[in-house]
Amino acid sequence: MRRLLFLILFTLAVTLLPVAFLWGDLWLSSDFVHQEVSFILEAKRMLATGAPWWSWNTYLGSDFIGSYAFYTLTSPFVWINCLFPESMLEVGLSITFALKFLCMGWLSWHYLCKMGVSRQNSAFGAYLFTFSSFSIASLYYYHFYEPIMAFVLLLIAIERLLRHEKWGLTCLALASFVVTFVNFYFAIGSIIAAFIYVIFRVFSGEVELTSKLGTSKQGNSSASSACQLVSSSACQIILKGVGAVLVGILMCSFLLLPVYYQMLITTRAEAQSAFDATAMLNLLERLRTVFMPKVVEGTTVFVPDGSASFSNEACIAVFGLSLSLIYAWRHRDWLSWLLLTLLVLYLTPLNGIFTLFTNPLYTRWAYALTLIVVLCTVRQLDEEKNVKRGVLGYAVLASLVVLAFVVKVLISNGGHLPSIRFIALIALFFAGIAALVLWAKDKLSLRWLKVAVVACTVVQMWLFLFNLGTDSLWYNSLKNNVEKGDGIVTARSDFRGGKSFLTYNAGLLRNQPSVESYHSVITTGVDSLFKTATYDFWAKNKLRANVRQDEFDALLSVKTIYDIDSAGNVVKRDAEHFIPMGFAFDSYITRSEFDKLMGDTTVNLPLVMLNNVVLENDEVEKLGDLLTHGDTQALSDLGTVAASRKQCVATDFKGSSHGFEAKVALPAKKVMFFSVPYSKGFTATIDGKEAHIYQANLCMMAIEVPKGEHLIVFDYFPPGLKTGLWLSLLGILLLALLIWLGVARSS
Fold first, then answer.
1. Residue 310 contacts by C-beta under 8 Å, 6 or more apart in sequence?
2. Residue 714: helix, strand or coil by DSSP?
């Protein structure tokens, strides 16, 4: 174990330190810089408030639990990062990266040992699993590692239950809680994969399904009765296991219910949700990913206009599938059939089962397949049998697939290979194949083959990391040149930051509300608002407007706009038509009237919403005495409309992690509009008296405010959290019952 942990740290040091030296503090790019770093900073700010309900920096404001349970909120490693000062974020990330890899190695070593593998080969297998292609390909996601560890923990708990070890059910319930808690999305794939594992395991013949008393009775019964007893015992174990898993999930209700309410209004929840037969086109691409390392370039895939990231690599350094396939060929045990079943699921559209068909092309459960591949591999190593013929056959098969891949890339690129890095990856694959063949032919000792595995891992990580890194320049430029937002999780005064180059969560990074966002959990209502201001909308996870920008900024109370000067420095300017957050309307149009204008590129939709507040059809009668019916054809210019809206505005606007408040002084009763996303979690009061909240301008909020001076307070509490807490308490009571039963049984 000590050697394993040292080797993991050594691999991380020789791969990450050179990249960090070349690229600066932050040595990764893509989602890591644009999402992970920003989300960790927001989690740090929100958790510091003690009431992390509403994030002002996310979209135009969002439920924090629902938006960040997938990313940062539930990660113990993020909690560790939150202990570091913001100026030492990179140091904290480096430490937690190392901790994650060490934990993956430690847990997988325990699992492999529990499965009867020798301690030495368990350590080697743990290294293979820790630095599988899935792990390396997930370097810039950061939050993918917790589900990997939780899955291994889940299998360890399952083995305790199947072997009738003490506290088996309790351990399974706790492991199920951990799997669900650390990442609710990955939990779907992990639990389905674990269920398939159990089905093969309980009927393997290796597990003693009956108690000693049951076994004694079985000896005195007929063969038919014995089979019935085993079948009955298997069903009992499965049912007990399912019950324990449900207890673990129930304990997580305090998280799952707020997430559920958020996901109901999320754009990605409306994504492709049917069995996708076209995913079969991805077969060759998926086949390649079980043979060779990750390829980042989107052009180097078999699927037209596809992306290699959809396959989420599943190979392990040098060995690939070689020894696991040899093991499956030589054995007809549960593990062999499980491996072949998972391979079929991985390579075909049946992969969609693990995401309930919401994203059938993704294979983010590849860690489950990889762990089984590793288990087969190290079991074959333990047998020390001649594998020469099998390895040679595998080398030919894998080489043919990779060569076909290269030919395809050459055809797609007009006879040119896409990059030196691509050539290096191909060379790395064939170098690994050569080392494997030399070992099989007794030209290379197992010790030196393990050295080759480490070398291959280091080179693979280098090739992956050196392709990244350039976005750290963006990060450092933004960090050093943009004024930071005031306070902790507050809407700065009465405005938001505006658009220019600062896409990809610049507002989150700098603790300043912004009209731009790059996030996977985007509310559908906000989606509809942004569609009025753009014809190039990234519905999946980006929000930014590229037309009608001035009108759009005025509607959303954008005051500060950032840009880059000729020297590459970040500069800022004031928006010309800034309207403070919270302003009154005199006229309205209905949602039906507005929907008829959607899609008409000649209509300035943000300006329509500045002229006349858009009310839901069933809310019109309630406000008819305060607002006149507007005309969508007679639109004033932006300057005139902005001046009109500025006549009655809120003052002393203050945002917090549980809502916002503002003061108004009105000459008459008015409808006050706030460009804060509408949510059932909000309640409003005026001078302490409850006020009805109207859904306005598609996805925002408005209230009726009487004449005179008033204090308006909007309080937010996550929908479903209270009910979830009660259900979690019920789950804890059921866990206590499992513990009591375990004590009674052991005594």
1. 282, 285, 301, 303, 361, 362, 363
2. strand
Residue 465: per-residue pLDDT: 77
Q: What is the mean pLDDT of the chain?
A: 82
3-state secondary structure 515-552: CCEECCCCEHHHHHHHHCCCCCCCCCCEECCCCCHHHH
Burial label, 272 (beta-carbon count in 10 A; 0-12, 13-18, 19+)? middle
Greatest Cα pair distance, the chain, in angstroms, is 95
State the amino acid at position 85 in one-letter form. P
**CA-to-CA distance for 520 and 679, rounded, in angstroms?**
18
Distance of CA 657 to the CA centre of its chain: 23
Whole-number pLDDT of residue 218:
44
Cβ contacts of 605 within 8 Å, gap of 6 or more? 532, 533, 548, 594, 597, 598
| Cα 516 to Cα 514: distance, rounded to the nearest angstrom | 5
Question: Is residue 463 within 8 Å of 428, Cβ to Cβ?
Answer: yes
Q: Which residues of 464-496 are buried (b: 16+ CB within 10 A; e: fewer)?
A: bbebbbebbebbeebbeebeebeeebbbbebbb
Judge whether 301 and 411 are in contact, CB under 8 Å.
no
Do the Cβ atoms of 286 and 355 come closer than 8 Å?
no
Helix (H, G, I), strand (E, B) or coil at 358: coil
Q: Report which of 309, 299, 316, 305 is spatially closest to residue 405, judged by C-alpha positions.
A: 299
Whether 478 contacts 511, CB under 8 Å? no
Question: DSSP readout, 604-646?
Answer: -HHHHHHHSEEE-GGGTGGGTTT-EEP-SS-PPPHHHHHHHHT
pLDDT at 220 (0 to 100): 47
| Exposed / middle / buried, residue 305 (Cβ in 10 Å: 0-12, 13-18, 19+) | exposed
Rounded to 5 degrees, what angle do the CA atoms 253, 257, 261 make?
A: 170
Alpha-carbon distance 206 to 13, whole Å? 41
pLDDT (mean) for 440-453: 93
Can you tell me whether residue 489 is helix, strand or coil?
coil
Residue 689 CB coordination number (10 Å): 9
Q: pLDDT class for 339, splitting at 50, 70, 90? A: very high
∠ CA(612), CA(616), CA(617), 5° rounding?
105
Which structure tokens are listed for 434? 């050569």
Please identify which residue in the block is written with the tokens 């309790």. 170
Q: Which 3 state secondary structure label does DSSP give 120? A: helix
**Mean pLDDT lowest for which of 146-160, 178-192, 557-571, 697-711?**
557-571
The rounded distance, in Å, linking the Cα atoms of 280 and 285 is 10
Give the span between the Cα atoms of 290 and 372, in whole angstroms.
Answer: 13
Structure confidence by residue, pLDDT tens digits, 259-283: 988 887 776 555 444 455 544 546 6
CA distances from 378 to 104, 207, 229, 324, 454 (A): 17, 20, 34, 8, 16
pLDDT beyond 90 at 492 = no
Residue whose C-alpha is closest to residue 53's, from 38, 37, 69: 69
Say what the pLDDT of residue 498 is. 37
Joined tokens for residue 330:
């030589």
